[in-house]
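Ops channel
N.P.: pipeline sanity check, posting one input/output pair.
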């Protein structure tokens, strides 16, 4: 009986302070290891999400070109040499507005006063910014059009759309200006594309290592 009593009393012994500290240290170490892994997974998810939107933009521009036999920009007044694409008078805002056909039939729909999408075709379906965030479509006009549409990436920055406006099936490669020499050193002068899309990435600075592009 005495032996059984001692066994019961010893089995109820709690953790010592040292044991508790060891457990806390182990939990802290595991947490410190998990945070970088979680951040990396989130970054990969954001990159994948961004690239998907870039692909949608490029495909939509291709469909627009097939439908109208022209690009969704107004090139009147632009200039450029034989070996370089003219600089469009329109910006990304107008391109997205035209592709989404958010303007009414009597609106210019962007394009510097020219209705570039008279058939009102919606070539792309992009996410709308929610809960005060700047990710997705922001339309201050409430759908009235007129070139007010803005498309922002997950970091609240605009997309950059490059178009082969002189129809030579090549675009000057922005990677040639990247400050990361591992990227710029091996970047060809031209991309064999008719449309290219890129954004600044998490650091919100153009032509840096973490730029997200549609071509690499």
């Amino acid at each position: 009986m005495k032996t059984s009593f001692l066994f019961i009393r010893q089995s109820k012994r709690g953790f010592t302070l040292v044991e508790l500290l060891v457990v806390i240290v182990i939990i802290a170490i595991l947490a410190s290891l998990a945070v970088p892994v979680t951040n990396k997974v989130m970054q990969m998810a954001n990159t994948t999400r961004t690239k998907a939107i870039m692909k949608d933009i490029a495909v939509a521009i291709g469909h627009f070109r097939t439908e109208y036999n022209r690009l969704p920009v107004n090139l009147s007044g632009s200039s450029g040499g034989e070996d370089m694409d003219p600089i469009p008078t329109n910006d990304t805002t107008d391109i997205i507005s035209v592709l989404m056909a958010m303007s009414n039939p009597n609106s210019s729909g962007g394009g510097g006063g020219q209705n570039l999408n008279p058939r009102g075709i919606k070539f792309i379906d992009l996410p709308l910014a929610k809960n005060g965030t700047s990710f997705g479509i922001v339309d201050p006009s409430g759908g009235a059009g007129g070139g007010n549409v803005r498309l922002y990436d997950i970091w609240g920055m605009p997309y950059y759309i490059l178009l082969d406006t002189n129809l030579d099936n090549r675009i000057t490669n922005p990677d040639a200006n990247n400050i990361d020499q591992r990227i710029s050193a091996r970047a060809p002068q031209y991309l064999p594309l008719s449309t290219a899309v890129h954004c600044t990435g998490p650091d919100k600075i153009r032509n840096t290592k973490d730029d997200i592009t549609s071509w690499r």
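N.P.: looks fine end to end. The radius of gyration is 27 Å.
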